[in-house]
Amino acid sequence: MVRRLALAAICLIPGIALAQPAPDSTWSAVPFSTGQPAKFWFEWGMLSGYDFQRERGSQRFFVDMLSRTTAPQFGLLDLAAEAAVGQRGSEPDQAVTGYVKLPYFRGGLEYDFQAKDVFFKMSVQGAIRRGGLLHAGDRLRIDYTPGRRTLAAGFMFHFPWGEYRATRPYQSFTPFPSAPSQPRSAALRDTSLALAVENVRLAMRAMDRLLTPNFGKSGIFTPRGRKKFQRVVSEVQDQLATPGGTFWEEDSAYHAGLERVFKITADDPSLARSAEDVIWRRVVVPYDRCFGQRKHPVELGGLLAQAGAAFDEVLRARHLDEPRRVASLDAFRRVVVGIDQAERAARKRWDDPRLVWIPLNYGLRREQYDSQAEMQSALGDLIGDRFTDANSVRYLLNDRFHYEFRRSLLETRVYHVLWVHDYRGLNRHKVADRVAWSQTIDGYVEAFTRAIHELDRGERAYLPQFYLFLDEHYYRENKSRGIISFLEHMSERTPVTIVDTVLARRAREGVARLHAAIAASPTLARMPRDEVRRRIRVYVSVTNPYDPSFAGDLLMRDHRKIAFRDVFEDDPASGEAISTGEGIGEHYLGRYWEDRSVVIRGADLVLFKSAVRKLYQTQGIPEARIPTVFRARPYPARYAARCDSLRQAGWTTGVLTAMNETGFGEKKATVMKAALYNLMAAGSLLIAPDSIWTSDFWAAMFVSAALRGVLVYPIAPAAANAPSDALPTMSLLHENLVTLLRVTNLLEPEIKRAGGALRIGIYQREKDVNDVREVLDVLTKQSGRVPGRPAVHPDVARALLAERESMDATYEGPRQVIVDDVVGRKPNLHLKTQFFAGANALSVLGRREWAPVLRRYFEIRRRQTTGTATADDEITSALLRLRDGDAPCLADAVGAGDGDGDGTFLFYTIGSHNQDRRSMLYDGEVLNAVGGPDAWITLIDFVFLMSAADWPTTETELNAHYPVPGGFMRSLARKIRNLI
Fold first, then answer.
1. Which residue of 145, 549, 806, 971 is most buried, as measured by CB atoms within 10 A?
2. What pTM was computed for the model?
3. Which CATH class is domain 391-648?
4. CATH no. of 32-164
5. Closest of 404, 861, 824, 940 to residue 592, by C-alpha
């Protein structure tokens, strides 16, 4: 109210009512959506100025009508018409103006009715602060008319009857506690204590340098960049050549040093464990949880002060005498200065506070994260949510997402959410997208048609609610307005206009069936026509619309790709979710798209529902308007018992879903990745295929993992197999891979001594991605130079050969059901799926129990790709329980994997999060971590991807897969690397 009154006062127009009517009491029960962006925008405002030519003041009230014509999501080029009335001195002032508008500048011609003349006019406008001075989207405007030497300034606003919603956070940073500057501590008189404290600090700084070295700060293709690159490599080599200088030795020295410190101050080395726990809870977790976000202040002083206060409470609880308590607290405060020093060094190293990651080892010892349960606990601490284990998971390859998504629509009982970056109106040939229209007619329209019949038969109490969230950038880019409008108005008799005659006929037939069901329904006949229209539609919200008062956010997009239905706290088995890298369109289906998805049921799904609630809030929707289905509900008393019953039924997969919010919000998915890379111990395995392998930060963490003894295998697409093949992207990808290759070659002795490996795989598949025969060819012939390929048990080798012979005799190849793209292009690698295995878990790779698993796996894939699959033909953990006769099954051999210190942790991650800086810092993303033995179901897929890849060892071999860009393109790509 204060803001609105201030707005009226500034504009000097007290007669305009700004308050919105109170929402109707039925809002909470009725679905709500923000709809599509308007085609025209209206703004108004007041200007005051001075006419220097005739030396008189001027005031003007204006109304604007705006049409965004080019890249509306960025306000790149708009056309505007304006009408104005006011006074110039004692004379009336009326004018109309036509403008061409760039993001911050307008230029146009104004016709002055008094002067009966046309004048050229310029205008600049922008928000004084994020969201406007009054947080109402208001902007400052300054006009200049050269021909009349008139300068005017004022404010412009959205129309009062058009509700303004802030669709970005007003604050662009995460507030951190600050602490007053402390006087410098006097030098310790006890030289042994001073030495112990300094050794702890040195170990801290060494771990930080080795965990996130920056090898490509200035690129590696210029003399200056090569010099910096070589200097960083030399620093790492010098560090590792120092006695006790490896990461694990420094890690041990740090923890032992803490024990030494408290042995001296309190004669109690066990205080080191308490100190580490405080550092973990009070410094590491709150700081690293904000990784990828802006922080203010960027310094650690406030967190360190809080940690000191918390440690003082620990000391007082120990009932130490005063001298020992004071000495121990002083020593703790001196020790954590090392964290501050490491943070400052990392900030300087990366030139970006968002890329500072404090080593988790400051708060954790190796024995605290060497089992499945401990790894999941550490990840839960950092993310702020916990792994749940009452879940069931199915793994989907390539076009299986298309069929699972349609099934989820048809099985919806209460509500369904599609949260996607891409619902294509037109395909790449600029005609109606067949896959998007297929999902529209055979999915949404058919779901409503069936629901109406079920409603009339008394099989359901209400119609389902369908929600679609789509980021404006992709909505504009993929020409989605037509198909989205159809989804919003499917109950109306609007003709379907599609050029493709076959598709148009299918659409008309589907709509005719829906309208016939509506007309024949006795239940709907009792509803007003407007109510029927409100209920039989998809509730579309185009999110993150262009808002010039949030100019700094315009390039940040929502890239999440999830679909879920019927999730409620009442019953963990009630809903289902699909997390994927795919969108809705022909682009993602057929023989050329390599992608993965996962279907999840169980306790984890409440996080999806919570994320939608948060999305509504970030799009400026008040709590009262958030649909009832997304409101938080209390867990029933029987919830734990229900989870127990699901576990007994075999729902035992650990799952944790993490999401990055769009723009300046939380980056939980980014934190998840960084934590997993940090926690990989010697002997572990990390396989990381990705479509955009451009992140220098992730590359640095992979080098660090190899130097710690981890087997690391990043896989990137060749240029011909890259879904994003723009020149800047290819330039950055090529430079990142060359940097990785050079580092690997230079540090090869150090990596070998640690027992690690780092090899770069290049995906260059030629055949249909759904051709199961090729998978068997690759696995049986071991094509490609697969580094460190595990030995295969003879029974498994025989099973593969037998399956290959059977395939030759019976398999005719994959059947293209909806789209058969005959364009001669190569498969695109679009995976965002990674595999993590602990050292002891790798012993499973050579077991004979894989034989029945492989036989059933290829039977499932053969049926899926020929269109003969049944509901039982799914890739799930049930595969692990298959056995040959009385022989043990793989599930028995794997075990639970959660024993203390057994090192058998296992994870795979899947979602939309790319290996690039944009996904780290800017875009909305989803990442699902699936933990425990059930993750073995993905191993066959990962082994195939490794076997099918090329593994270059020289730059010449690597360069053969990419066009080598020029210097200008490399320089440009580095400058905009956060946006690629």
1. 549
2. 0.93
3. alpha beta
4. 2.40.160
5. 824
